[in-house]
Amino acid sequence: MMPAQGTDTRPPQDARTHAGSGPAALAAGILFGLGLALAQMIDPLKVLAFLDVSGRWDPSLMFVMGGAVLVAGVGFRLVLRRPRPLLDGRFRLPAELPLDRRLMAGAAIFGVGWGLAGYCPGPAIATLGLGNPESWWFVPAMLVGAGLERWQSRRARSAAPMAPARDTANS
Amino acid sequence: MEFTPWSALGGGLLIGLAAVVLLALDGRIAGVSGIARGLWFSGRGERPWRLLFLLGLVAGAGIWALAGGAVPLPRAHFPPALLVLAGIFVGYGTSLGGGCTSGHGVCGVARLSPRSLVATGIFLATAILTTTIVRHVLHIG
Question: Do A107 and B93 make contact, defined as CB atoms within 8 angstroms?
């Protein structure tokens, strides 16, 4: 993936502007995957035992979210005091948009899918290598769903050029 | 399922640490649905780190399995059609709503983002409702 030394004279634009650091992303992914496994979130039955509040309720997942939010809450605060990340030019935080129907409808639909099978995106992808065919069905379907939403949003935007201007309309 | 507060807490701490590492070094939010979606729908330069993060997820769970950790078996009577339907809902919903359990539920809640707090409340509510219907009304799984 690295250009051969001495032969490529182009300035490393990509690397500086938006490539991020591969090793850091890999390390973060491994930690994340180990955390999901230790917490048993890779087991959809464990997840469903949390969501099934009227059955034999297992509150374990509250501790997963609690632990993660605690570390991220403190860690993010410390990290964001710095002017920029260690290996990239700037922080890329989601824009603070107002609450809108897209957010609420999207969250509601995601919850239905999560509750149907017990998989959210992280655990579904993490289990791809464990020889369990469940995630081999789920993950491609998830990418199809995301593609469908993107296609629909783009079509809605281009089909309504006269619609009242929204922030996204001029892109 | 047995209540396992300590392993749950330990796993949560690791997930939080992963999010802090990614923000501190790369300046990016560890939202898995957005990272996966961007693997297909983002500029060329944005792809390698995303792929490596997702490979890391697979490797992390793989290391756990190689070290003798418990690995879930496929459910005997769970219809693949339901997995596909669930996957489409999860992909569509996270794309529309801009995040999932990690992006909104962990990173966004940790930043006290109003959007993420609302999204997390909504997806927990609809997930609980759906699981209740699937298990106690439809008797699947």
Answer: yes
Separation between Cα atoms, residue A60 and residue A50, nearest integer Å: 7
Q: Which domain holds residue B133?
A: 75-141
Report the chain B residue with the minimal C-alpha distance to residue A51.
B128
Helices (H), chain B: 5-26, 32-41, 47-66, 80-97, 109-110, 114-136
Distance between CA atoms of A61 and A69, rounded to whole angstroms?
Answer: 12
Considering only CB atoms, B97 lies closest to which of A82, A107, A143, namely A107
SS3 string, B6-31, reads HHHHHHHHHHHHHHHHHHHHHCECCC
**Looking at the domain assignment, is residue B132 inside a domain?**
yes
Q: Give A-chain residues touching B75 at CB under 8 angstroms.
A: 44-45, 134
User: What ipTM does the predicted assembly reach?
Assistant: 0.97
CB pairs under 8 A between A and B: 509
Q: Distance (Å, rounded) from C-alpha B95 to C-alpha A10? A: 35
- Model pTM score: 0.89
What is the per-residue pLDDT across B83-121, written as a single tens digit (0 to 9) for each?
999 999 999 999 999 999 999 999 999 999 999 999 999
Contact check, Cβ <8 Å, A37/B84: no
Q: Say if the Cβ atoms of B128 and A51 lie within 8 Å.
A: yes
B101–A114 C-beta distance less than 8 A: yes
**How far is A83 from A90, CA to CA, in rounded Å?**
8
How many separate domains does chain B show? 1
Residue B112 located in a structural domain = yes
Residue B119 lies in a domain: yes
Residue A12 reports pLDDT greater than 60: no
Tokens of A150: 């993107």
Of B2, B3, B56, which is closest to A30 when you measure between CB atoms? B56
Determine, for residues B136 and A54 on separate chains, whether the beta-carbon distance falls below 8 Å. yes
